[in-house]
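Anyone up for a design puzzle?
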């Protein structure tokens, strides 16, 4: 498989601009190490370009050694006739697969993968937002700060250098130099142009022609406060990752206020837009989720008032009287509909408190911050909501206990 074919496959499976750029970065570092070692630069570049191509669709949060990333992607590549040494290297970069890293290519991929994302994170928080003035000393200091880019596995960064048989300082410096020439293509430095496609790969064997693009950090590995800081600075990918993390929670919270799903989606979107406008008010020392959901809750309440949606204090006639035992064929759907209807009978604040506590898993203190009420009020709301739901869903008691 040549580079054009690998690039097309990666784009087919990966829509995230951030993740694409991470793979461009790893490709660049792999090409630089191939030149240094006198290996096949094109082959090593393909390994870097494809090592995470299935990650977006099959992220493998459970770290299964045989399912999802990278095993799924390796299966796709094997069907396309990709050589086994490439497949073994891709499997080996994820330690949980248990595949040994025996070749220099496999060891290099493992060594540069985590480091590429970490170096970009280091650059993004510098005043210059550049790799040009990034030093090994600064990187090592950030590596010791476990709160910075905490999704990056420090042990694997160190282990990667050890497996290559080079000092960590030398490895870090080499990868920084490999990533510097193309940083502007990824929005780093003064000449940044975020979202611009990468330049063609330089295949010259001159050591100064390091590679293709430098990285944009894999946003999924960053904590909320870091993403919020980048988003405030204009990084759309960072804010997009925050939306991805909280979209489902925001919709469910809005749904607790607005009975119409379309209204709830609109309210969630209103909340995200408001949060983007007011990111400067966010305190990075506090959890991002409650801050965001408070904005969403306000947006939903405002939309409810504007549209004069029927308030939920009235108990629908169908729920006021006992319901017959549910038919087994429609148990799950029926229970879901009954639960939604029962939630609709609760006062607005109780609905939100119940959803945040029992569905989203927030603490009473965090919910108090979202709803802007005392913690004791939240505890009372959750208690009364549960009591009311228990009464409304009494007809489903036997079914729920059997589940």
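Challenge accepted. My sequence:
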């Amino acid at each position: 498989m040549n580079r054009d074919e690998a690039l097309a496959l990666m784009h087919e499976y990966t829509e995230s601009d951030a993740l694409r750029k991470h793979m461009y970065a790893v490709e660049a570092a792999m090409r630089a190490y191939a030149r240094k070692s006198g290996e096949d630069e094109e082959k090593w570049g393909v390994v870097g370009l494809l090592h995470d191509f299935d990650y977006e669709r099959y992220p493998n949060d459970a770290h299964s050694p045989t399912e999802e990333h990278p095993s799924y992607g390796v299966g796709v590549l094997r069907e396309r006739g990709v050589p086994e040494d490439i497949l073994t290297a891709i499997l080996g970069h994820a330690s949980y697969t248990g595949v040994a890293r025996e070749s220099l290519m496999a060891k290099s991929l493992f060594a540069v993968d985590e480091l590429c994302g970490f170096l970009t994170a280091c650059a993004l928080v510098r005043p210059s937002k550049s790799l040009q003035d990034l030093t090994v000393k600064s990187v090592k200091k950030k590596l010791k700060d476990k709160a910075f880019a905490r999704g990056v596995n420090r042990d694997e960064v160190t282990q990667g250098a050890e497996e290559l048989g080079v000092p960590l300082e030398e490895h870090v410096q080499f990868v920084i130099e490999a990533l510097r020439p193309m940083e502007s293509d990824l929005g780093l430095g003064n000449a940044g142009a975020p979202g611009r496609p990468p330049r063609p790969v330089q295949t010259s064997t001159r050591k100064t022609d390091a590679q293709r693009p430098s990285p944009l950090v894999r946003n999924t590995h960053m904590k909320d406060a870091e993403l919020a800081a980048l988003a405030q600075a204009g990084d759309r990918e960072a804010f997009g990752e925050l939306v991805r993390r909280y979209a489902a929670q925001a919709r469910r919270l809005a749904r607790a206020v607005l009975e119409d799903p379309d209204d709830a989606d609109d309210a969630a979107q209103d909340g995200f837009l408001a949060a983007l406008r007011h990111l400067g008010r966010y305190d990075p020392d506090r959890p991002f989720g409650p801050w965001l959901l408070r904005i969403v809750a306000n947006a939903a309440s405002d939309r409810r008032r504007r549209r004069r949606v029927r308030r939920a204090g009235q108990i629908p006639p169908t729920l006021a009287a006992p319901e017959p035992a549910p038919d087994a064929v429609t148990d799950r759907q029926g229970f879901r509909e009954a639960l939604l209807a029962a939630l609709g009978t609760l006062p607005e604040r109780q609905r939100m408190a119940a959803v945040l506590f029992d569905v989203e898993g927030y603490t009473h203190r965090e919910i108090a911050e979202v709803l802007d009420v005392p913690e004791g009020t939240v505890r009372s709301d959750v208690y009364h909501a549960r009591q009311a739901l228990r009464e409304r869903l009494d007809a489903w008691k036997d079914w729920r206990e059997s589940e």
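A detail worth pointing out: The CA atoms of residues 25 and 214 lie 4 Å apart.
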